[in-house]
Queue: 2 jobs
Job 1
Amino acid sequence: MSHPSHPGRGPERREGPGIAVAFGVSALASLGLTVLYGFGGQPQIEGILLFIALGGLGAGLILWGKQLMPNAPFVEERKLNLGRPEARAEVVASLEEAGPDAGRRSFLAKMLGGALGALGVAALFPIRSLGTAPGRALFRTPWAGGGRVVTIDGEPVAAGDFEVGQVLTIVPEGNLEAGDSQVILIRLEPGEYEPPPGREDWSPEGFVAFSKVCTHAGCPVGLYQAGSQELFCPCHQSVFAVLQAAAPTAGPATRPLPQLPLRIDEDGFVAAQGDFVEPVGPGFWNRPSA
Amino acid sequence: MLKKVARWIDNRLGTSAFTQDALNKVFPDHWSFMVGEIALYAFVVLIVTGIFLSFFFDASTSQSVYDGSYAPLVGVEVSDAYKSTLEISLDVRAGLVMRQTHHWAALVFVAAIVVHLCRIFFTGAFRSPRELNWIIGITLLILAIFNGFTGYSLPDDLLSGTGLRIAYSIALSVPLLGTWMGFLIFGGEFPADQIISRLLVTHIMIVPALIIGLLTAHLALLWRQKHTQFPEPGRTEHNVVGSKLWPTYAAKSLGLFFGVFAILVLMGGLFQINPIWLYGPFEPQQVSSPAQPDWYLGWVDGALRLFPAVELRAFGFEIPNPFYPGVLLPGVTFLALYAWPFLEQAFTHDREPHNLLDRPRDRPMRTALGATTLAFYTVMFIASSSDLIAKWFTVSVLDLVRVFQVLVILIPPAVGWATYRLMKALAGSGAPRLTEMPLSALTHPNGRGNGAFPHQERGRDAHAGGATAGDDGDGRSAARTGGDGALPAQRIDDRE
Ligand code: FES
């Protein structure tokens, strides 16, 4: 520790009344906080009073440091000794004092390594307990039963009451909360929708239904523009054209929203024919191609 | 009293010599060295407010009917996690200030780390012998971002539920392991019940423990290796010039702590953040719009928006679209950050230890590269608000995305080029700082020593010596000489 060659501690520093005032104001604000708390509290005033209480302390301390404490630049030598070969050689020698002869030692070290490795592998297995196996879970949804469609409040949908142009989020009856079964139900003018081959009987009376789980990253495709008949995902702005079997027309999504095959049941309610024919939602490595 | 305590402790631990050293330790006074401290203090605020919150939060997804004081939600089925967060916000006295301060502190924590990282990068403080501390710092950044996300997801509200769903989809997108990863992390197919309680343990135990451990190591290494400093007369590779820890630096730093705390509680009191009662509880069929993550994940969200609609498919397997912006980009980002000190060493062959910092102009190439990188991530960050921007300017969000897709390719190199020219001009002009550089320097970047600013201007109250930084730009390190020593720093020989 030495002072630099020039003794200059700067111009004579004066102590203003600032420090004491800062601490005083801080104390008053803290007092105010206790009173405010007693009266039931109020977030904005709490914030302001806490700001004054803490800020007063901070300001006081900084002023104290600047005005009253030694501020000349001090010089400290770096005495750190990096990389001393002799000392290092000693450490290495000490570490190597672990056994008599090198061959035997390396054999034992290998055994030790093997035992630790085996323990490590064994310790990995409980990770398996963390969740269910993916199995076929990503390939099917609760629509497999093919029951009625219901609103998110569990109300069935009567085909006769549902007007052309109307849109509704539906889920399978008896399973309102699953993450993969939400579907958008839209009623189009009969004949407006030209189903792709193989899906001719999936859209009775103009009802079409598409998975509401975005094929990009799984957000609910929550917005429908009636004019252009497009579904819009608010997360990364993928757009799906309903009349083109929900094919993506913009944004990062690469696949159409899977279509749910519909039927109208004997009592005139909208129902599913069965599950989607392909996995819904975002891609995964072993997802079969459509 | 003080004497007695000192005697009592010294008789038992013999720590007087160490304490004396510690009290006399010198800390440089440059303002940019405060940024890391701000991060540290934001972390302290996070712990203080977080402990308070943890006494009230209930990480359960079991559902019950809300009957608290927020009228619009009375009668709605909500999870206990959501309900307890509402209670903290609206019914616990001082709860909202604590919660909002906690959230703001998290945003400031990551921001301060990023700015600190920039300081270290642009001044070359990561160079030998400080590569280890750079690696610890990058790890801390990753942990801070990760813990921000886990905390953000805890309240089980609609906005964060959407974020979790995207995180799950990104996990699913990993080749071969993705489906297992998604199911093991979340406990099953999304939305599995355990996720909130797992997030809580991660958020308040595992990651904070790691952060505290690494932070301790970070500071211990800093203590051991001592601070870097900007080259100025009197400062050499072999000394540190600044304030002593006791009393001046301690007072100022403690003052800074209270200042950071003060600003954070003010934000927590006045500026609403994450009003989950407006978002509503998480329902898998619903989505909030607009949906943005907290700022520190904006770049990933922006990348997800900008990455074109392509994915690889071969032999019946696919690598889904979110993998590239959601896994590959962050992976490459952090790998490159980890590797940077070694990449630069390989490039410049400069393996000498450095205790004197570069000024950004001394290394125009590095500075330009850093600026390019920052510009790249900034454009993606802005693109994560494409829907909001489109709304404000009433333009089509799809057109805007296309514009951003072009900008994210064009802007970074442009920024890099401009930075390079600027640094060259600045170095050539000899101006002590950017704002004092004459504009003519830009047109004659190599007209160094044009008389306006002789080099020794930098140390205006110069005493001995005076030759400071050489500015050879992209070559080997310039030999720096301070007032009292022309010796380079001690050599490290990594090759036996
Ligand atoms: S999740 Fe729908 S666009 Fe990304």
Note: Chain A has four helices and eleven strands.
Job 2
Amino acid sequence: MNDNGIKGLLLDEPLIFERSSVGRMGVAPAEFDIPEADPKGLLPAGLLRDRIDGFPEVSEMDAVRHYTRLSQWNFGVDSGFYPLGSCTMKYNPKVNEALCRLPGLSMIHPYEPEELVQGALELMYELEEYLAEISGMDAVTLQPSAGAHGELCGLLMMAAYFKDKGKARTKIIIPDTAHGTNPASSHLAGFKVVPVKSEGKGALSVDAIKAVMDEDTAGLMVTNPNTIGLFEKNIKEIAKVVHSKGGFLYCDGANLNALMGLVNLGSIGVDVIQFNLHKTFSTPHGGGGPGSGPVGVKKALEPFLPAPRVKKSRGKYSLEYDRPKSIGRLKAFYGNFSIMVRAYAYIRRMGGEGLKRASETAILNANYIKERLKDTYHLAYNEPCMHESVFSDKNLLGHGVTTLDVAKRLIDYGFHPPTVYFPLVVHGAIMIEPTETETKETMDRFVEAMKAIAEEARTNPELLKNAPTKTKVRRVDETRAAREPVLRWVKK
Amino acid sequence: MPYIPHTEKDRECLLKAVGAEKIDDLIAVPENARLKGELKLPKGLTEQELTKALKKKAARNSTVEDYASFLGAGAYNHYIPAVVDSVISRSEFYTSYTPYQPEISQGTLQAIFEYQTIVCQLTGMDVANASLYDGASAVAEAALMARRITGRDKVLLSAALHPEYRETVRSYLHGAGNHVSEVMYCTEAGTTLPEALDAALDKDTACLVIQYPNFFGSVEDLKALADAAHAKGALIVAVTNEAVSFGLLASPGSLGADIAVGDNQSFGNTLSYGGPYLGFMATKTEFIRQMPGRIVGETVDRDGKRAFCLTFSTREQHIRRERATSNICTNHGLCALAASVHMVSLGEVGLRRLALLNLSKAEYLKKALANVSGVEVAFSSPTFNEFTIKISKAPEEVLKGLLKKKVMGGLALKRFYPEMNTKEEMDSFVDALSKISG
Ligand SMILES: Cc1ncc(COP(=O)(O)O)c(C=O)c1O
């Protein structure tokens, strides 16, 4: 059987605090080349701290062993197939990791005078240009730290625009397929969310938008391709409806990996978009971040972009702070620069042709998996998909197993499970995004594992319910974690 | 094509399997939405060419080692032990994502649980989250959190809070109708003015936000400010963006803080021209349901073995949508790992020494600069590792002059930063400044 997951030797490892021994030190700070100050003489007694009870104290080697063992309990893209839908877990090129660590890019202070950081500013300027070209936008800010941060940025700009026009708008339309960050960001930006349902085939209808779009609505926030993996085929007509009421079309660009070189979002009516550099542009996900969430806008919104902006004049780059209509800023400094460096390197390595090929291949791979699985699992929408496909749990429930059981069983086969239970509109959703960096052989092994699991569900469902069995820990009691919270270690 | 593994044969085979003749048949985008023509981007590069191109860019920047740098103000140049990059370069850590599947993410989860504990230890609080984007956005999240807890609107910022943090709070709070105001600092002491507080704090005030140590480097009397805020039923948010100070200064929690936020960049995270850095947040147990961000908790697996998983997720956007405590999803997990590794390798003794070293260097430089004619230490209150000076000449001109001597002296608001600076560098700085200033 195609059983990828075999058992290896995993070493147990206590919490770092339990490894600790008072007074032990790993890496000592520098020696004093100046007189040692006396804190008691300089600061009031009430402001000096006592001992930090329980602070970890280990040798350098023990620290290294500790973290090495922890790392071995983790599964990353470098460990194996990670088809986590909506997250674009593509390969993270090693050269990008090396380049962002060049001292000339990593050891520069954000407040250095502009003339000393011309290379950094140039890189940012060019990255903005590339992202504008890829999306068809007129201007880009690199400031936001992640997709959701970018959403907030775009939405605040829309709000500022209407305020500037003297007529604030209070609502925003969001489809029921949207990622949770969309309504959460909208609320934060002060908008009331107006939900719309997608029609039978998983797409938004022009009429549904017509029915709710009015002059108190700032616009529509749409993910394209949507979270079902389908291109919103009525997008141009929908944009017209939104624009006819003076609104903006916000595109959640989390799924841009399906569109590079294939669709110019600007020319089909998108006014604002956030890019998730940690998805489309190959920067690593870091066990939860950091990412980067630049935002592109059309001309009308340009004055509202956060400050500062990178400017170029006669071959010299500078930062422009004086932007009277700007929404201000969403973080200190200019954005997650070392993530920008990686994305920049990726774009330069791929070129326009390479990016297009990446999107085409992402679509090809997703369709391949969809075709091979659709007779076994229930395809939520039987339509040609873009970069990901979504199945439901319809064929599973009769056997008393759930989507979660399938996901956990996949782990035993050596795969990271797909995204599960999202989007919410698909019952027991299984969302599979292979990305373009996977080989046919890997996808075949995954497909066979999925089929074997479907067979097990029929013949021996206990295998699924007991899974995973080969991992460091078995199924984790998440209910208990919430009911009897232990959120930190405390010294006994 | 880089990173795309398919051979021509693979492509054909895959196309056939999906019943398409060519890739275009597969792209389910209506004709009217297709891009005509090609992307206008530079041609792709080989890995070697790319490396050369980026080295060229890097060479057009001057690093904090090319100059003697005395820059700080929310971005700190501390020595990062080699063990940090070694650990965060393990790709089981950096190529994974949010630990949604705990059984294959115990490494990330345990590391976050340990990090949460360390943040609690440093801040003197009960619970901490997994991370936020940076110090500035963490303050904004804290302000929103305080509003939810108190049901009050007004957010009061000390004017001695980092200006970019203040700006961030204002931007974040646009949607909530703003209600942000500021309290002045005492121009003599360089700390938040207690008299100004009395007028500003009222029954509508959700929180008072104090940076500790503040933007000028001065150490605020957090306890007194907390008492004043509490007397009016407001919460106190303590902001620390030079986290090394935790090795020397009393924890915000012990001085009455209700929410402690800030940036842990100082531990393990490179300057990288301003990001990614590491927002942190810690609070009291009673406020946990209003805290934004991921939280890891300890539990057991089916066999009763210790295990960790994400918890309290009913606060979060993927469950609660527009009623979530925050929109944050992707956070700064790897930065938190870097900070943990740095702190763990220092240990308590190392951390205390590092803090003392920073204090000592700042004191050395402060004294030396005070003796330069035309230079005056701006504020009377105690400082930690940065401080503010006044110069009789135009600061911009002085800074330009210093650059010629390979010294980055600070911003026009003159923030100085020691530790990484040897005595020799500090002496030559003083020397250069006395020549320019004198
Ligand atoms: C469709 C979609 N939108 C928005 C986001 C939010 O992006 P981030 O996690 O970078 O904040 C995500 C991913 O998490 C997503 O999948």
Note: The CA atoms of residues 203 and 233 of chain B lie 7 Å apart.
